[in-house]
Structure to design on (232 residues):
């Protein structure tokens, strides 16, 4: 498996880094994010991870980056679209530009990275595209007008991709994280919350690994992750 390649977008200090650490145990990992300094730091700490600074909303840059990854590491066998754009506020208060910007990150970047990587997976007859999302993909709360519509569209795009690619042996899955992710800033915001309130990035990454390696006879599409104490 060491010759296989995993491409991960949105590599930040939380879930993104955890995904890199988990998949680097079996893949050469291409890390995509805008923060070049952060990527460089992770690359020095995680063996098998290579930094590719990229703004996923820049279609030309994203396409060129996938070409570079393929030339330098090989065609990705697994793609994880973890990049996320978010904004809070109701439809009367948000800036319309925020909705468009988040749509570019959450939906259009998924479309472009999938179009750039799926043909090689189809030719090979195997592969996985996993998209990390959240429960905004299923409900439009009043204060999420700049975010929920884009996550709902993202999930529907992923479902359409799954129906198209499944017969070719390529697994597409949508992983909704119904939780507060355990990060320094979330710990500070919910400082009185117990450990069980938070979802660990490493555990999210572990589940994404499991989903990417499901046998063809038992594929999942909709997967929801939540801590055992989460109300739902």
């Amino acid at each position: 498996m060491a010759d296989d390649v995993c491409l991960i977008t949105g590599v930040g200090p939380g879930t993104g880094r955890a995904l890199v650490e988990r998949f680097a145990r079996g893949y050469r990992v291409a890390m995509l994010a805008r923060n070049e300094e952060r990527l460089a730091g992770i690359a020095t700490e995680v063996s098998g991870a290579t930094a590719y600074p990229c703004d996923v909303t820049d279609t030309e840059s994203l396409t060129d980056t996938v070409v570079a990854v393929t030339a330098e590491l090989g065609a990705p066998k697994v793609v994880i679209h973890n990049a996320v754009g978010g904004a809070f506020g109701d439809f009367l208060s948000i800036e319309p530009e925020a909705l468009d910007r988040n749509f570019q990150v959450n939906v259009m970047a998924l479309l472009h990275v999938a179009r750039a990587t799926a043909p090689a997976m189809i030719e090979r007859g195997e592969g996985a595209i996993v998209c990390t999302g959240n429960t905004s993909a299923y409900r439009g709360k009043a204060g999420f007008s700049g975010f929920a519509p884009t996550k709902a569209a993202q999930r529907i795009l992923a479902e359409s991709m799954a129906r198209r690619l499944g017969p070719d042996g390529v697994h597409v899955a949508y992983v909704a994280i119904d939780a507060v992710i355990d990060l320094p800033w979330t710990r500070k915001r919910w400082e009185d919350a117990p450990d069980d309130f938070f979802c660990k990035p490493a555990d999210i990454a572990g589940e994404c690994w499991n989903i990417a390696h499901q046998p063809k006879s038992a594929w999942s599409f909709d997967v929801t992750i939540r801590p055992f104490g989460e109300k739902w």
About this structure: The domain at 5-225 is CATH 3.40.50.720 (Rossmann fold). Strands lie at 5-9, 28-33, 49-53, 78-81, 127-133, 170-177, 180-181, 198-199, 222-225. Residues 107 and 192 are 35 Å apart (CA to CA). The chain is about 40% helix and 20% strand.
